[in-house]
Amino acid sequence: MESAKENQPQEAHVLVFPYPAQGHINTMLRLAEALSFAGGLRISFLNTEHNHRRLSRFTFRPNFRFLSIPDGLPDDKPRSAQQVIELFHSLRTRSVDSFRALLLAGGNRDPDGWPPVTCVIVDGSMPFFMDPAQALGIPAIVFRTISASSLWVYLQISQMIEAGELPFPADADLDEPIKSVPAMEGFLRRRDLPSICRQTTKAEDEMLHLFANISTSATRSKGLILNTSNFLEAPILSKIRSLFPTTYAVGPLHALVESITSSSVSASLLSEDRSALIWLDAQPDHSVVYVSFGSLVQLTQEEFLEFWHGLLNSGHRFLWVMRPDLVAGGTEAVEMAGLEERARLVAWAPQEEVLRHRAVGCFITHSGWNSTVESAAAGVPMVCWPRAWDQLVNSRLVGEVWKVGLDMKDVCRREMVESMVRAVMEGKKAEEFRQVAAEMAVEIGRSVAEDGDSMFDFDRLVRDILSLSMCASIAQPPHRSCPK
Ligand code: UDP
């Protein structure tokens, strides 16, 4: 005879675990926030202890909480771009046991008396956290925070090697097209490949294969979530769906959250300087160039000075996010005297609000995927200066596919900065960019509204989480409707 407990669906409890870097946390916190409004779900958002200390100041709904586990590095060790690989290895070798222990806690053993976890959403750049969950009978869904296009390129690494397009010599013509990545033949060049592909010298390169394997490991999950939409990347999404049939394109998530909750969610690890918005209030419409290179990119002194002089020479006003660690060796060279009227520097800005401000006319960006979709959703044309990783693919989308800005890739000269800023801020070409950007923003707004594609995929994700949760076996025997 079936017990009463067996008939009762267990409470759905989703654990969301981003890679411990600002861009990943932002995206996944937005997803977690949207899920907490879906009804019937409890959300635990897992950070490393290092980030937890900086994020736990946020308050959320009663069905939302933050948890933390150690990342395995000493407290005083920096966690900036230079330590990305070290942090990755530490998480892989030192944090999996803590993760397993956390999953095993539940009910009486949970610090808040919450029910056991019934579904995990893990950052796909750390697929090794899927295994302990699945071994305990907890279904795992993967979230990749990069663009569908970048993911597709990583997934095609073996095909590029087989076709003899990877690796290529250091002195090769970078404008040569790449032909072996389906759906990208029309625009992808060597120059646009992620840095790991550009840097490699041998087909057996360990890092190259690590990136490829991380990407294919999503096939071991119950589904793949992407912060994109059909409108932004339809041809590539259809390719990805041929490998991962259960793909949810729910982006841009910051816009989806706003559509669901009528407010935005900020997950800044640094405190935001809101005086940027007051300064913008005093500027004319579309008159300001917003400059930010995200949370990790570092500039050399030379690069910094090329941007600085390029901006000054353009004659336009600018608001620049000058993180304390942005420029190697500091920014003593900056002379602000006499510039107060037309320039403003902040250590960290409320970026989404800045981009939506009527005074912003252009965004100089490193083309991190969050920054790219935030700009697109706000209808702001971009000048892209991608440095590494997936940014090199994203900036090609901006410049050649969406045609909503210009791609400075591989060039960092003041004349180039000046001429690109002028092209996006002045004259007929600038009007065209603004028009395309405005149309994109409208379409993005449609995709996250009720009946939009992204909202449709989000609703499907919630339904699937609820039904997967009934079959999670950590707490109790799976519901009778579950496959045996
Ligand atoms: N960001 C912000 N304030 C700033 C600069 C950046 O809030 O002054 C946010 C931005 O809105 C985005 C994230 O930091 O959500 C950066 O993510 P992205 O993927 O663009 O780049 P990454 O930092 O991962 O290189």
Q: State the low-pLDDT regions, or none.
A: 1-7
Instruction: Please state the average pLDDT score.
Output: 92
**Based on DSSP secondary structure assignment, what is the total number of beta strands?**
13
Distance between the termini: 17 Å
* Widest sheet: strand ordering: 3-2-1-4-5-6-7
CATH topology title of the largest domain: Rossmann fold
Protein name: Glycosyltransferase
Organism: Dendrobium nobile
Pfam families: UDPGT
Family: Belongs to the UDP-glycosyltransferase family.
Plain-language structure description:
It comes from Dendrobium nobile (Orchid). Its EC number is 2.4.1.-. Keywords: Glycosyltransferase, Transferase. Belongs to the UDP-glycosyltransferase family. InterPro entries: UDP_glucos_trans (IPR002213), UDP_glycos_trans_CS (IPR035595). Helix 7 packs parallel to helix 11 and helix 14 (about 300-315) packs across helix 18 (about 415-425). This protein has two domains: about 5-150 and about 195-265 and about 450-475, Rossmann fold (3-Layer(aba) Sandwich); about 275-445, Rossmann fold (3-Layer(aba) Sandwich). The strands form two sheets. It has a seven-stranded parallel sheet, sandwiched between helices. Strands 10-9-8-11-12-13 form a six-stranded parallel sheet, with helices on both faces. The protein has helices at about 5, 20-35, 50-55, 85-95, 95-105, 130-135, 150-155, 155-160, 195-200, 205-215, 230-245, 255-260, 275-280, 300-315, 350-355, 370-380, 390-400, 415-425, 425-450, 455-470, and strands at about 10-15, 40-50, 65-70, 120-125, 140-145, 225, 245-250, 290, 315-320, 345, 360-365, 380-385, 405. Helix 16 (about 370-380) links the parallel strand 11 (about 360-365) and strand 12 (about 380-385). The chain is α/β, with parallel strands linked by helices and about 475 residues long. Helix content is about 40%, strand content about 15%. It contains 20 helices and 13 strands. The chain starts with a helix and ends in a 14-residue tail after the last helix. Uridine-5'-diphosphate binds next to helix 2, helix 15 and helix 16.
